């Protein structure tokens, strides 16, 4: 079963005081889409964690110093953490609620839960900005990380993370880089997009060695090339055989969404949804990016795939030279990954 949970307050708190793509309207768009689809299995979370408990969870992922710094900034009312990331008086409160909801849902869920939460989290590393990256990319606390911790506390041993936001999930990657967790991240090529990390040769260290898989796509990549890589992703997940899955769902790779240069359409997101459904393990999906068209059309197609609604979407086409380049790189990534942990 698939249940969508909308974080209470996510359409009310953490409001920019200037024009910014990450704002409460995003949740209104998603809620309207759910209503239009006639999707019945969604509801609103209630905030039932106290501050102390949320801070305890945050402390399992982030450094004490970083958490204290954010709490301090939130007292200022309006504060720019960096050129991309704003903090209004209730931002840290909402971010802690999102973090706790991810954690708590992972402690309980046996099926698929899609959490519509704000702000996004996958760029937030242990100490906030990760090495060499210019900003927190709209993120405060790492929600995907909290879901991983929840699953771990339940005793899951083979946790997988799939991040299909168009930007590399550098925060999540940093947090678990040396840990025995499969991390698959599909994103626009780091030469061409923030945060400029997530190259194919970043494959993990220590216990995590070989378990970090970065698939990259050149600008103008369409569904045909992307879906080819999803076949590889599916095989890698099958080989790894996870007992639980955390998905960082970003819809900003959708054509014309505004912040990136991929030309993905419904076909890719439908396929992503089907792929997640077919893994068939307890799954927490957390909302990351997606700001305009992706939030409407990408989200809808993803949910159709996730719930097994039969649909036929036609592929957008990738220019031939880009198709070749993507295929060359991602095929090598795939083959290396299988060599490292394939049966
Ligand atoms: Zn993104």
Morphology call:
globular
What string, H for helix and E for strand, traces the elements in order? EHEHHEEHEHEHEEHEHEHH
What is the count of helical runs?
10
Q: Helix/strand/pairing class, anyone? A: alpha/beta
CATH superfamily: Histone deacetylase domain
Strand line-up in the sheet with most strands: 2-1-5-10-9-6-7-8
Beginning-to-end CA distance, first to last residue: 30 Å
The hetero molecules present are: zinc ion
Radius of gyration: 18 Å
Largest sheet, in brief, is: 8 strands, parallel
Helix content: 25-40%
Q: What is the percentage of strand-forming residues?
A: 5-15%
Low-confidence runs: none
Total DSSP E strands: 10
For this structure, the CATH topology is: Arginase, Chain A
Just name the CATH architecture.
3-Layer(aba) Sandwich
The level-1 CATH class: Alpha Beta
Our count of domains comes out at: 1
Task: Give the tags.
343 residues; eight-stranded parallel beta sheet; binds zinc ion; 40% helix; Arginase, Chain A
Could you explain how this protein is built, in words?
With 343 residues, the chain is α/β, with parallel strands linked by helices. It has helices spanning 25-37, 51-59, 64-74, 91-108, 143-153, 170-175, 223-240, 266-279, 293-307, 320-341; strands at residues 2-6, 42-44, 78-80, 86-88, 112-116, 159-163, 182-188, 212-217, 244-249, 283-287. The protein has a single domain (2-341), classed as Arginase, Chain A, CATH 3.40.800. Helix 8 (266-279) links the parallel strand 9 (244-249) and strand 10. It starts with a strand and ends with a helix. The mean pLDDT is 96. The structure holds zinc ion. Zinc ion (ZN) binds at residues 165-167, 250, 252, 288-289.
